[in-house]
Amino acid sequence: MAENNDKTNxxxxxxxxxxxxxxxxxxxxxxxxDDIQQKNxxxxxxxxxxxxxxxxxxxxxxxxxxxxxxxxxxxxxxxDNVEVSLDSIESMRFGEYIDSLTLPTLLNIFKTEEWxxxxxxxxxxxxxxxxxxxxxxxxxxxxxxRIEGRPYxxxxxxxxxxxxxxxxGDLSTAFDPITSVGFVFDRLETNPxxxxxxxxxxxxxxxxxxxxxxxxxxxxxxMLPYATxxxxxxxxxxxxxxxxxxRDTIWENHLMSQLWETDIEIKAVIKETKAxxxxxxxWKKGSFFPLEIAPDEDISLMxxxxxxxxxxxxxxxxxxVVKINGKAEKK
Length: 331
Description:
Blueprint: H1 2-12, H2 19-26, H3 41-47, H4 58-78, E1 83-93, H5 94-100, E2 105-112, E3 117-124, H6 125-135, H7 154-175, E4 183-189, E5 203-213, E6 216-225, H8 226-229, H9 233-236, H10 249-259, E7 267-269, H11 277-281, E8 299-303, E9 306-316, E10 319-327
Antiparallel strand pairs: 1-5, 2-3, 2-4, 3-6, 5-6, 7-8, 8-9, 9-10
Helix pairs in contact: 4-7
């Protein structure tokens, strides 16, 4: 009887999962009642290490400045009523973003020379044809003509290149209150495979912008890898522009000005040597201690324990002076 009970307990420890339970464990089971698919299981664990853009609050201020600058620039460029809005900012993997692109789309790779890295700007076909239609005299109230399946003409590419450079200039201006950076046009691609600027698993920030010109318009996605933003991450984590974390700038400026008026003690050290304690204890008035120094040998000017300058000792009238030859070498 004891053996039968052990076998029964062993069989109860193992259970075969059905396909629905396996999908739920791996994160492929979603609730049909939710409008937004919520990840669960292993997918939720793997996605949990994604960095949220909310940890870089200054980016929202940058993109807010960008849409205002873009609206003004595009109005002046197209001589039309242009409205620019920010739909959302989200974090994702670069591979997920590339897979989410709807073709045909035009991908612009731009370089940030100061940060030595790249970013990506995508323009959908609706925006491209709308811009071309507006700039070439298309009438209001008629949708821009789309011819799917053909490559963009040189005229269309030149127009879009000018618009991209205009937007990159506005993006650089939007970053000016934080840091000085220039975004340089690199190349245009139509195939997402040729626009790989980082590893597929790397985290990126994507800003979804929408441009409306009355009855026409389209979308622009501005994608920046976290590796690109890493050089200024300390500036982007600030909660507001010019954050000082409670420091008193008036007191700092006063302290800096008063430091120049501070008296400090400078010692001229002729020679340093070591001696036995037994020899020092035997010194008496009139004892001589040889330093073994040449008349033209350099001496050190010290402030506390810090060596400032090297110089040569001499005499000027009735004063002993030191002629400075240069700064002391750092040890």
